[in-house]
Amino acid sequence: MATSALATPHATVAASTLFSAALGHLNIRLPLRHDETHCGTLVDADGNMVCVVDIHGERPDAEVRDIAELLMLAINVHAGFMPEVTNG
């Protein structure tokens, strides 16, 4: 992490900007999304896999989906992407 955008303090730059820059440095383009065809898989805006929740299948799919979506929400919101609001 020493070469990342988070390695040096930038008091005047928003944390979300630094976070997004650090992920960009790792070739991860935001926002992340949950790949519904592969339960628990988070992919970036280009469709590249970022991480897999419960790779060994030890948890029920519903729980894996909830964990993946909570992680996705936390990462996206921290980076400045607000969740989409749906009616109903």
Share in β-strands = 5-15%
What is the strand arrangement across the widest sheet?
A: 1-2-3
* Counted beta strands: 3
> Roughly what is the average pLDDT, rounded to an integer?
87
**Computed Rg:** 15 Å
Q: Are there runs of 5+ residues with pLDDT below 50, and where? A: none
Principal-axis shape? globular
* N-to-C SSE string, H for helix and E for strand: HEEEH
Q: What class would the helix/strand composition place it in?
A: alpha+beta
The helix tally amounts to 2
| Helicity level | 25-40%
Largest β-sheet summary: 3 strands, antiparallel
Distance between the termini: 42 Å
Structure description:
There is one protein chain. The protein is of the alpha+beta class. Helix content is 33%, strand content 11%. The protein contains 2 helices and 3 strands; from the N terminus they run αβββα. It has a 3-stranded antiparallel β-sheet with strand order 1-2-3, covered by helices on one side. A hairpin with a 5-residue loop joins strand 2 and strand 3. The longest helix is centred in the C-terminal third of the chain and has 18 residues, at 61-78. It is globular, with a radius of gyration of 15 Å.
Summarize the structure.
The chain has 88 residues and is of the alpha+beta class. Helices cover 33% and strands 11% of the residues.
